[in-house]
Protein: tRNA(His) guanylyltransferase
Amino acid sequence: MANSQYEYVKSYEIPDPLMPNTFAVIRVDGHAFTKFCHAHEFEKPNDIRALDLMNRAAKAVMHEFPDIVMAFGESDEYSFLMRRDASVYGRRRSKINSTVASIFTSNYVFYWSEFFPKTPLKYPPTFDSRVVLYPSPKEVRDYFSWRQVDTHINNLHNTCYWALRHDGVSGTEATKLLEGTFSDDKNELLFSRFQVNYNNLPAYFKKGSVLVRTDPRLTKGPSQRDAECTEAADPSGSTTAVPSESGPSLPGSDPATTKKKEKKKKAPKPFDGRSGPTVILHTDIIKEQPFWAERPWLLE
Ligand code: ATP
Ligand code: ATP
Ligand code: MG
Ligand code: MG
Ligand code: MG
Ligand code: MG
Structure:
């Protein structure tokens, strides 16, 4: 199309690329979700339907962005880690930031009725979003540790608060009772007053959710291994997928030709986390083992 006399205004759109070779974390957070939860009668302290819906929306974001190799979700927020060599959208910050928030929000609404079949949406939920750049793996690790420590602190507090509320204690009184208490006091309160051992609560609530892709070459294939599987919640347990003993042999394939073909094959590209089935884990992401040690590509 011919240039018009007005086109010069385009030059006011200043390029905003993310600094090269830096890790980007995009975090979305529900806007005024305290009110949204109340309006939609979320179960307290943890409504699993809402957490599952958050995970579904996060999965959609990862589907759209192969360069997002990991996501961590808790409460009404989700953090997405983008590889430092990502070149998507020319690394334009506002394009990436706004697209992530938009995909997340539209999927949250799109899948709402699947997770809340009996609760119609009263008004459209919205999410804000920001991008933060980190220069090295240390800051990325510390970022995710920060979010998971937050998950634990909030969950312990909310578990106590709602145990008291469900026991007939008023909001003001419950807040007062918990004021100035430490973790040990809260654990003791749960145990002595409610016979609840905090350690036995689901890892889903205590540790939040992590989405990562697994190397398809290490899985038994999508037919045997559900691409949407939720892996073990045991933080101490290894989460590496077990390689199948031998590759699938095609019916009628001649062993001699197969050998020839194998010779020609180049060395396989190392897994970079951009492809493969997405799995949901409820595991420790503060310690090195096993999560980070098993997935060196996340910090490449
Ligand atoms: P802002 O717009 O500043 O983010 P907010 O009201 O969303 O305000 P947050 O700090 O983000 O404040 O807190 C989110 C609120 O939503 C918390 O009260 C949290 O307990 C609640 N919430 C989020 N997810 C769930 C869930 N799955 N089940 C129960 N409550 C939830
Ligand atoms: P990008 O993601 O880069 O924006 P795009 O496919 O959305 O890619 P645009 O330049 O934004 O590309 O163009 C929008 C397209 O949608 C055009 O082809 C336009 O004709 C079409 N379109 C938008 N609104 C309407 C409409 N109301 N009726 C018919 N076509 C429409
Ligand atoms: Mg916020
Ligand atoms: Mg919020
Ligand atoms: Mg929040
Ligand atoms: Mg467009």
Summary: The longest strand covers residues 23-30. The chain has ten helices and six strands. The domain at 14-138 is CATH 3.30.70.3000 (Alpha-Beta Plaits). Residues 137-166 form the longest helix (30 residues).
